Amino acid sequence: MATELSYVLLTPYTMRKSRTGGIISRLISRTGLDLVAARVFTPGAELTEKFAAGQVTDSDMSHRAAQELIQKYVLSHFTGGTSGTKPRVIVLVFRGEDAVKKIKESVGHILNERTAGETIRDTYGDYITDAQGNVTYFEPGALAPPDAASAERDLRLLAQYSDSEGGVMDAAIEFPKGANVEKTLVLIKPDNFQFPNARPGGVIDLFSRTGLYIIGMKVHHMSCAQAEEFYGPVLAVLQDKLRGRAASIAKGALEPKFEITFTPEQEKALGDLLGPITGRENWEDIVEFMSGRRPSTCPADLRNAPGTAKIVALIYQGVDAVAKIREVLGPTDPSKAPHGTIRREYGQSIMVNAAHASDAAENAVRETGIIQINENNFRTLIEAAYAKQ
């Protein structure tokens, strides 16, 4: 089986109903494929027409009927919008052996809808007909290519429009005048991608409780330099915070060993000596966890290279977005997080705690700049993949 690319396009209705996380959970856990790129689009008329034109490819009428239905759906739902809101779609790109077949089977055939939830369309799609067999309501939930040639054609097309009609689509949603509209950054951390599982989608699903809008999405590999800059403000905090703990541990180990007693002044001196050292070690652990490379051992020629650890970055927009996201995320220590929060559900430790979220709107600006949220690695990946053929 050849390694290939395939995609899933989450429809405007899926995004409006906040079903993104549930579908991503199924795709990753059931296919075992690698999620390698993601991008939000607000398709214009030209992209919509070209994408729709490619959806009818099969002469077999059992398949052609579904393809024509999808074509009609794309033309009707990808442009326009209501109340000043533009339709948004997310395109997820997967890579792996037999990717097209695995994605197609996971998404399912809309005309063979079951109620058991075996496929994505069983659960999230609708195909309703009247007594005469006429379709009265149709919602596919997600779109996927039927074959490798279609996958290549569609991905090349989407890559072509990925700058003009994709990225951080912060003008897609219209909000009431005077509302405190904010954008905030969420990072789905590397611990969710150690093996194919439902966790990344589960985290996104819990964030959907905020009622906020996903307006940007990117699969990213932090370089060591990016992780150092991103977590730079944490270093001094850790070095100061760990003075007391380091002193207490050292005192407990040294006093019985040498049969001595430290005065308060001497204990403080131990903390002043060891706090910065242990703080930096802890900070390097964080940088290594997020990038896959440790600052003190990272070769100079790799400091700015993409790291080995994968994260997914999302931009959420809405009223009081920062506070809403932080409330659902929960505090840094999972053991102290309230039940139902992301870190309580998925976190393991203070460092391995499922997700990061900006703690202020201004920090969201700083952090999105560091990870280059506007970088179009979606197009770069697709062009590089097909250039090799």
Could you characterize what this model shows?
By secondary structure, the protein is an alpha+beta fold. The protein folds into two domains: 3-223 and 307-387, Nucleoside diphosphate kinase-like domain (Alpha-Beta Plaits), CATH 3.30.70.141; 227-302, no CATH class. The chain is built from 15 helices and ten strands. The strands form three sheets. Strands 2-3-1-6 form a four-stranded antiparallel β-sheet, with helices on both faces. The longest helix is centred in the last third of the chain and has 28 residues, at 264-291.
What is the topological layout?
Elements: E1 3-10, H1 12-16, H2 20-31, E2 34-41, H3 45-53, H4 61-77, E3 89-97, H5 99-107, H6 120-124, E4 126-129, E5 135-139, E6 142-143, H7 148-160, E7 181-188, H8 199-207, E8 213-220, H9 224-230, H10 232-258, H11 264-291, E9 311-319, H12 321-329, H13 342-346, E10 355-357, H14 361-370, H15 377-387
Antiparallel strand pairs: 1-3, 1-6, 2-3, 4-5, 7-9, 7-10, 8-9
Helix pairs in contact: 2-5, 2-8, 3-4, 7-15, 9-11, 10-11
List keywords for this structure.
389 residues; alpha+beta; Alpha-Beta Plaits; four-stranded antiparallel beta sheet; 45% helix
Gist of the model:
With 389 residues, the protein is α+β, with helices and mostly antiparallel strands.
**What share of the residues does DSSP label as strand, in percent?**
15-25%
Q: Can you summarize the main beta sheet?
A: 4 strands, antiparallel
Structural class determined from secondary elements: alpha+beta
Number of helical segments with 4 or more residues = 15
